[in-house]
Predict the structure.
Amino acid sequence: MNILFLKTLGATCGMEMIEDAINYIVNFTAETYAKLLYQLPEKQKQVLIAINREGQVRNVVSGAIN
């Protein structure tokens, strides 16, 4: 989270800055991860998308994804 210390020179880093820093990092790296996702084989991409929809991983098997 070094980005927190780059915001304001000499300022104190507080908890209220965490969400802004996370949003900045996600936005900054989003294009890179989108390109990586595009390069994955279709089945691997489907697994990651399914995990994203569910929010957690349970009973991972090689069967069909609904």
Summary: The chain is about 60% helix and 0% strand.
